[in-house]
Amino acid sequence: MLLELNNISSGYSGAVVLFDINLKINKGEFISIVGSNGAGKSTLLRTISGVIKPIAGEIKFNNVRIDNKEPSRISAEHKIAHIPEGRMLFPRMTVLQNLELGAYTIKEKSRREEILERIFGLFPRMHERRSQLAGTLSGGEQQMLAISRGLMLDPVLLMLDEPSLGVQPNIVTRIYETIKLINKQGTTVLLVEQNVQDSLKMSDRAYVIQTGKIIIEGKGKELLGSDLVLKAYLGI
Length: 236
Fold this sequence. Notes:
Blueprint: E1 3-12, E2 15-25, E3 30-34, H1 41-48, E4 56-61, E5 64-65, H2 71-78, E6 80-83, H3 95-102, H4 109-122, H5 124-128, H6 139-151, E7 157-161, H7 169-184, E8 188-193, H8 196-202, E9 205-210, E10 213-219, H9 220-223, H10 227-233
Parallel strand pairs: 3-8, 3-9, 6-7, 7-8
Antiparallel strand pairs: 1-2, 1-4, 4-5, 9-10
Helix pairs in contact: 3-6
């Protein structure tokens, strides 16, 4: 078991947002967390990455508890990359400088260069724009950069929060295809999305979250046929 959440409750300033969450991810899986806006999806990722400390429960990564660790340690020691909603880039720095910041834990220059070449292969646009300021990129290009910077960590687990947000549909398709390829190359993926239909199609398994509680889980494509999902999230 790569990641395991046991009875996790979490929130902000005493207000509970997540209630008794149980979630398991095996190495190499592609898992989606789907639900409406405000359901608690982003809070879940922030809790895993240590930005928010859980109120109750425990989180294990490779059978080691991480819920008591700082975000920097979770990222550096356990190779968990969290691509947040909003991207959080450094707009006055170049694409290449943003990428280099993502590799702060990689000491060997040859390894950094190897990872960088892999990223340029996945996202050729990043190679084309490497000298351009991040703040001047389009929305889709900024999302590509945010994912690429996370990949510079050489993560075991890649967590993505709403990568389709503010991105043109044709670019979203390209980003989704690349995320799927990243998964096929061996990186475990945890995707949070409001785009329920596409994310369920891509996923090995998925969890549906509603008002802070997981209400159903199963194989992604099977959930597409669930009456609950069809009515609540696809409007059918």
